[in-house]
Amino acid sequence: MIRLSGNDATSLHRQGVEEWNQWVRDNPDAAVSFEGATFASTPENGFSEHLFPSGGVKFDGAKFKHSANFNRAIFRGGNVSFNNATFANDATFEHTQFGKGELSFTGAVIDGHASFHSAKFENKGILFDAIQFKASCRFNSATFLQGNISFRDTIFGGTLSFEVEEAAAQLTRIDFYGCVFERQLLIRAVCQSPPDFRSTTTAGHTDLSNLRIEPSGGRHFADDDDAKYRRMKEIAERNRHHEAALTFFAAERRAMRALGQLKGQAKLLDVLYDKLCDYGQSIWRPTALFFGLFGLFAFGHYQTLCGGALDAALLAGADSVPFVPTSRLLGETVTGEQSRAVGLLRVVHQVFSFVALFLIGVGLRNRFRL
């Protein structure tokens, strides 16, 4: 394999983008290395619209003393690494295309703003671990076609805007474990598994309301998914995102149940709470249960009592709200001397109606924060 490195690489780069791209076209499978190179503060040392061969590209330990411009560059394939590189000013990778292979910025330091606006990532593994972003970092309108992205132990000194193109995003995992967010975190993405925010420190506003988790091939949970959902719930509660907090709470409980952490009566109650009201998120489910019970027991009374349909409906209505004094009097007026079977049915109806009304109240409280 042809390898371009050291002075040969920097010399060819200085000849300009046309000479560089022609060499890449002539050597499409070559490897390029700028390890330890220093790029002076002259604008012509940018890499805008440059092509890179598929044999791998290394900028490990490189020093960019001016703004590093990789806008509209195309990395055709192979591993691409900027490990421990230092950027004294802005680093822009806008509309840049990263081909298949691993992409790594591990240990890099970026003193200025970092922008991956409209960048396209085809990489299976994307590592932004242990980076120091001293100003803002943007992934607005970026597209991810596959794989995982990791920001473990990264420090974000400015706002992180991770608002990617949902239609083209196929992320299986987003890892923020151990990150420090000193400013805002804005995230809009679709991920197949819950992002990992455990051990993070957030000093600014964190917006998780536009984060969607859509497992592929049916819902399943990894061993630590309950802890991930719990941490996201804590972040949402701290930032008063009540609906997001409820969503993450529901996912946390389902993960606990799927992982066998709930057993016996605790599991049964959890299943009922899930199915009857979606963990307090649904008002319509318990409402449907309430009126369904009314119709069922009204029909039952119509079949067993001597009175007509009106008397059956009045009795079912009285049992639907048993805590109202007038409903008790109405029930006694309709039934008169009732059998034990009728009395038992009425008790069952009253209990389940009370449960349905309670769940309706929970849903209303959660919906309107009463």
Structural class: alpha/beta
How are the strands ordered across the major sheet?
A: 1-2-5-9-13-17-21-24
What fraction strand?
A: 15-25%
Figure out the total of helices. Answer: 9
> What count of structural domains?
2
Report the uncertain regions: none
Strand count: 28
Q: What's the rounded overall pLDDT mean?
A: 89
Principal-axis shape: elongated
Distance between the termini: 68 Å
Describe this structure in words.
The protein has 370 residues and is of the alpha/beta class. It folds into two domains: 3-215; 284-368. Helix content is 37%, strand content 20%. The protein has nine helices and 28 strands. The strands form four sheets. An eight-stranded parallel beta sheet has the order 1-2-5-9-13-17-21-24. Strands 3-6-10-14-18-22-25-27 form an eight-stranded parallel beta sheet, with no helix packed on it. α4 crosses α5 (264-277) and α7 packs antiparallel against α8. The chain is elongated, with a radius of gyration of 31 Å. The N and C termini lie far apart (68 Å). The model has no long low-confidence stretch (mean pLDDT 89).
